[in-house]
Amino acid sequence: MTQALPDDRLAKRNVAVLVAAQAVLGGQLPMMFVVAGLAGGMLTGNPCFATLPISLIVFGSMITAPWLAPLMQRYGRKTGFFIGALAGALGAAVSAYGLYVSSFAIFLLGSLLSGIYMSAQGFYRFAATDTASDSFRPKAISLVMAGGLISAIFGPQLNKLVQDASVFPFLGSYMAIIALNLVGMFLFLLLRLPNGTSQEPNASPALAPRSHLQLMRDPSILVAIACGMVAYSLMNLVMTSTPLAVVGCGLSKNNANDIVSAHVVAMYLPSFFTGHLINRFGVEKIMGLGLLILGSAGLVALSGMELEHFYTALILLGIGWNFCFIGATTLLTRAHAPHERGRVQGMNDAIVFGCVTIASIASGGLMNCSGGSVVQGWAAVNYAMVPFLLLAGTALLWLIMTHKRAI
User: Fold this and answer.
1) Is the pLDDT of residue 205 over 80?
2) Can you spell out the DSSP letters for 167-179?
3) At what angle do helices 307-334 and 253-268 cross, to 10 degrees?
């Protein structure tokens, strides 16, 4: 089994590879989040279902995490990452065919398959910690997430070039996504990670992983999942509706690409220092700051629908997500033993992306089917953030008080 080195040389090598994978393969997600809702609206006659393709991408990620995490624990991370890239290429191919034959059902199937890639990408951040020391873990997670900065710029700009390259709208986007997966997957050959750490059948009971119920009784695990769930769900809720709101209020598709690009830059740019902030101020404070910034994004979005409002709200949304989600990931990795990795991480991502699926479905319904105008729909999306921010904030305060009582 690959072990952590005292100076984290191996971990830094793996982080560099994962950053490159995040940059190259990760470019497909902002592309899909821009075009899937617009393509869905084109293929279906009911605008309430326009964001259903995005919902199925996230749903595919949710149902993948519970089997992909144990598979990687048994056979190694690289196996799971290769499966993810191949599924990403297949999903894009099926989606492209759906566009070609104007079939919404086939397009939805391709979106569901693409969710397997999304799930695999979500484990890049955990793979960064497999050979890292305790002190390097927050930085490793942050740096891998920072790889998304390149994909945030690269993906939407590539999409501008290819989305109208075919007589079939958006077909060029999905052909480019196929190429990203088939080329980018070879980066995983450079990883030096454990081949697998599955629990042996005759292992000591003392080393047996806790049950799911026991894990959820751990305050740190429970709050990490809750805050990660809220941060990712609210980010997805607003981002999914953004292209529809931008185009619906008279701005262009290129404006939508640029706003999503700025948002994804904001999601990942803080990653260069989020790990340092966590080490200096503590993970709970950074998560709390993230929740406050998410709330401020909603306030800006509700204040107007000019181009500057969209840019400011989506940038704040990205920064808030970064602080809260990296903080939640760091908290989670500190709360379980190595032999519990597959069970905890699979459970976490299944719950998180299950809620993100609900958020993305709700996004289209709130945007297109609540009220009689784009303005009312956009307001409904942002008002929906309030109860979930209160839930996550309450959970975080409970964790802080629990830790204080334990001292």
Assistant:
1) no
2) SSTTHHHHHHHHH
3) 30
Contact 322, 266 (CB under 8 A): yes
For residues 225 and 325, is the Cβ–Cβ distance under 8 A? no
In the numeric block, the tokens 């259903």 are attached to 52
Those residues with Cβ within 8 angstroms of residue 388's Cβ, 6 or more apart along the chain or in another chain = 230, 233, 234
- Greater confidence, 154 or 398? 398
Q: How far is CA 345 from CA 29, 112, 140, 330, 375, in A?
A: 21, 21, 17, 12, 39
The encoded tokens of residue 333 equal: 């990795």
Place of tokens 């927050």: 138
Q: What is the mean pLDDT of the chain?
A: 87
24: Cα separation from own chain's centroid = 15
Distance from C-alpha of 7 to C-alpha of 133, rounded to nearest angstrom: 8
Q: Which two tokens stand for residue 359?
A: 């958020």
The model's pTM is 0.76
Strands (DSSP E) found in 108-203: none
Hey, what are 259's tokens? 């706003």
Task: List pLDDT tens digits, range 223-250.
Answer: 999 999 999 999 989 988 888 888 888 8
Mean pLDDT of 51-59: 86
Question: Average pLDDT of 178-186?
Answer: 94
Q: Residue 274: is it exposed, middle or buried by C-beta count within 10 angstroms (0-12/13-18/19+)?
A: buried
In three-state secondary structure terms, 134 is: coil
Which of 106, 84, 98, 108 lies closest to 28, judged by CA? 84
Q: Identify the burial level of 172 via C-beta atoms within 10 angstroms of its C-beta, where 0-12 means exposed, 13-18 middle and 19 or more buried.
A: buried
* Residue 60 parent element (H or E): helix 52-75
- Rg of the chain over CA atoms, in angstroms? 20
- Distance spanning both ends of the chain, measured CA to CA: 36
